[in-house]
């Protein structure tokens, strides 16, 4: 059961259109000076909820993870083809009509609109600050993915097209916003799904750490003053601890809102109240014959899997949690149920080996080998599967796992990276000790030295499938390299995505990114 905040009591639906869509759909029907009896608290709920579509194992997640060495959605015979949408993301062959790009762009702009809309109806100082945080968070994602941000300064006349902010303008805006609203956000909040000062600090850390990348993606630059700000902000974030040994998956569990010691900002999910598609984190990877049956889709690559050493709990363990109502828990089978699933799979209900569906005599052995298209004997079994969010068996509808956006271990890893890139105060020895403090709690041996390449691998191990891998690979200069099943990118245009065609069609201030 969730601990309710005043937000959980109010239900409302996000308006499903982006800022630029308004011009196309509504045009002159929207006049200046909209009036009405509108509750800003309800609008704020809509703003929070508008993040669900882009974030929860869909859209934004696909752009940030399926494009990397950590995840792939192979076409399995006739399944998971979708006109090549998934293959294009992993192979970096997308165009401006890719549905994931269109849905993510529209979803993030919807969040920007919904947050701005709160400000029109006399919100309290805290409500306004929370709305401005949501808007800045969505803007950061847009500039990360596309390099520019459509932004409407005033919602009083929708006939005026949004202007386009450059990467530098967008980052300057976000920094100014966070510094302005910091005093009006709660210093902490009992639940991580309410924006607070620490969430704003993490967003600022992300901006300062990536500023030199967003303005120069082929040759990222790291200003010492920006790195020092990352270190200073990390030192200001108090009240969190790295999960204790054996508790890594507490951060993603159905009761992570009360159990996690790391989660700084999350998206709210509660059965019977509101939420998003967190259960897609299970459905998209699990085989038809698992419990419950999934869609037998996405996987990771063996080269990424091999970054984990034996004994590292992040690689996978049996995780005992109350919402597991299967025999795996009630009969004490203790079969691995989270992390990376590789090899012969065993039923969490019968404790017997599982078989594939077709043919039913084939053992269900998730293999290390995978190709962008699979068929025949490997159709159902190719690829190591990943379960990051323990499945909420106790709920019949909306699953209760809050979706993790910011975690304390990410703060520590960003601090270590900033120190290695020249941020002060701090030494290489301190950065190494910081990373090892995380590894110790994960059951991993101490590192003896810390380089940027080693740190990138550690970020991969700690933050896998949380929506940061693409951003990390670009910042570390690795995104264009050949992958296990993809060739090297021949053109650096792929360091940003193509702006969706329909968005350009309705906003003359938007110009297509170079090369598309």
Give a quick precis of the structure.
By secondary structure, the chain is mainly α. It has helices at 19-25, 40-49, 52-55, 60-65, 85-91, 99-118, 125-146, 167-181, 197-214, 224-236, 256-259, 280-283, 302-305, 327-330, 408-420, 428-442, 452-463, 469-475, 501-506, and strands at residues 75-76, 149-151, 163-165, 263-267, 316-317, 338-341, 343-344, 365-366, 373-374, 385-387, 403-407. The chain has one domain (39-483, 496-515): Serine Threonine Protein Phosphatase 5, Tetratricopeptide repeat, CATH 1.25.40.
Explain this structure.
The protein has 516 residues and is mainly α. It has one domain: Serine Threonine Protein Phosphatase 5, Tetratricopeptide repeat (Alpha Horseshoe), CATH 1.25.40. The chain has 19 helices and eleven strands. The strands form five sheets. It has a three-stranded antiparallel β-sheet with strand order 5-6-10, with no helix packed on it. The protein has a two-stranded parallel ribbon with strand order 1-9. It has a two-stranded antiparallel sheet with strand order 2-3. The chain is globular, with a radius of gyration of 22 Å. The chain starts with 18 loop residues before the first helix and ends in a 10-residue tail after the last helix. Residues 1-35 have low confidence and may be disordered.
